[in-house]
Structures are given as structure tokens and as C-alpha cells.
Predict the structure.
Amino acid sequence: MSTNNKTATREDAGNVRVPEALPLEEYRKQVGMLLGVSEWIVIEQSMIDQFADVTRDWQFVHIDPARAKETPFGGTIAHGLLTLSLVSAMSFTAVPAIAGAQVGINYGFNSIRFVSPVLAGGRVRGSFTLKQFVERQPRQWQSTLDVRVDIENVSKPALIAEWLTLTTF
């Protein structure tokens, strides 16, 4: 059990830009539109190593720079699931909250494709487009977001996904 009693809020984002919350009716009008683009996140080797330890995925291409240098990648690469796990953090600097919401949670993904590897030291950011927004039951709405995680100075994205979130009022 965690001893961390802190509850994270959008205000905890510190010095990063956080979009202003939108009223429900205004958010509904955003279907089909780009909601925002996140701040850049650097994928350091130390982050990759920590992710490898947590997930027990110690494949050399992630954690052994000398061996990974001999691969077609030319160096260590982030786990695809590490990059995917950052989508939530990216959304805090790109996707506006819905005013009056009690809680928003991750509901899963309809699709995920890992398109390009992210080399250690690379910078990534997410773009979020609201594809669909539907009321599932009274006071609960489902957002379907098209997500693209780009790598700085790389033409193809790290990943593309269709992400589902639930918001309860």
C-alpha cells in the first residue's frame, strides 16, 4: 500500500502550461478538433532503465548502450509501453479539463500502433484530437481521443492511438 497521501490535481503541473477548463457544452463542440499539443518530454536513459526495472523488461536494446549501438537503431530505445504510459501526463498540458467534472479516468484504448522507436535522449510530445464525446449514462461522458506522439526531428510518430477516457460529474 502506498504511503503517498498526495492527490494530484491539474494545479500540480507546476510551471508547465495547463489549458483552461471548458464548460461541458463548449467541450462538446470540440469534436473533430485538435484539443492541443503537449509540452516536450525528454526520454532519458535513466527513465528507460527505471521502466525496465518496474516492468522487468530488461531486453538489451533498452538498457545496454554498447550492444544497442550495434542494432539498426544505433542506440538504446524506449519501451513502446513507456512512451504510451506518458500519454496521460502529456494530456495534462494539452487537453482542457471539463469544468465541474468530479473525476476523469483512463478507460483504455481502441487501438495502439508503435510506429517509430524513441532513442534515449529523444524528446516526445502528444497531439490530442477529440474524435467522439458521448454520454454513457447520466453524469458520465466518454471521450474518444486520437493521439499522436511525435518525436522531435523524426518524420514518423512514435505512436498513434485511439484513447478512451471517462468523465463523471
Notes: The two ends are 28 Å apart (CA to CA). Residues 20-42+78-168 form a domain with the Thiol Ester Dehydrase; Chain A fold (CATH 3.10.129.10). The longest strand covers residues 123-137. The chain has six helices and six strands.
